[in-house]
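WARN retry 2 of 3 for item q-0093 after timeout on previous attempt; input resubmitted unchanged.
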Amino acid sequence: MSQPRQSRALIIVNTDFCSSDGDVGLRPRRGARREAEKLSRVLAQLSYRVKLLHNRTAKEMEDLYQQECSREHGDYFVSVISSHGEEGAVLGCDCRPLRLTRIFHIVSAQNCPALAERPKVFFIQERRGGGGGGLFGNTLAGSEPRSTLQIRED
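OK item q-0093 returned
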């Protein structure tokens, strides 16, 4: 008897940032690695197959979502990105932005049949350059976010 397919979770946590010339671009995100590891354990306890990755460039993050389109998925797909960011984008460890709309386009039903008809939940925890960060949650239906919840730091 075959086992049911496991739902997948992709967690990307960027803690160290450098510009293309190797200079330190943004402050390190202390504690983010520990938080991501705790979240990974919780999702694993909920029977998700978790892929936890650290310090990925914008291009590498984009490629990871492309790769998810060729994987077998269970009932749900959960994605967590913890990084520095800017309006509508998260930063790779190379300080280059990856637009959230690009991620949503990659995993849309049209471009990613493996995830068609499956709920896709995105949690984006970003710290913006000058001030507070926030936690943004999106559920995705079709190619656009259906709902967005924004939680600001105190």
